[in-house]
Amino acid sequence: MASSPVEANKAAVRRLYVESNKYNLDFLDEILAPDFTSYGGAGFKDLHSPKEFRELTETFMRSFPDLQFQVDELIGEGDDILVSGTLAGTHKGDFYGIPADHIGWYILPF
Question: Which of 53, 1, 14 is nearest to 32 (CA)?
């Protein structure tokens, strides 16, 4: 039996984070629609293209070189998928003007 469109979208979102954990961002253009939108939350701006999503992800990866995403829950309706999860990494580089500090380890909900 074929999966529903919502389940297919959830699988795509799971893959996004699995591949990001491998630092493989080459797939973003393949997996994200040209009109992709990610709504900021946690003080981050909304993203309106695969390019903007890639740029934000690359910034996180430069600043937190051991960054890992954990998806805790996916909720879907229609084409919309809500992701709840945690990201963790060691702050080793500048992150939007915030220099790396001696504490260094962060766990953030997303």
Answer: 53
SS3 state at 84: strand
Kindly report, residue by residue over 63-103, the tens digit of the pLDDT. Answer: 989 989 899 999 999 888 888 888 888 888 888 888 887 55
pTM of the model: 0.74
How is the beta sheet containing 105-109 ordered, strand by strand?
68-77, 80-90, 105-109
CA distance 30 to 48: 16
Contacts 24+ apart (CB under 8 A), 81-87: 81/6, 81/9, 81/10, 81/13, 83/13, 83/17, 83/110, 84/109, 84/110, 85/17, 85/109, 85/110, 86/110, 87/60
* 35: three-class secondary structure by DSSP: coil
Please answer whether residues 49 and 36 qualify as being in contact, where contact means their C-beta atoms are separated by less than 8 angstroms.
yes
Helices (H), 1-110: 5-21, 28-31, 50-63
- Report which residue type is found at 14: R
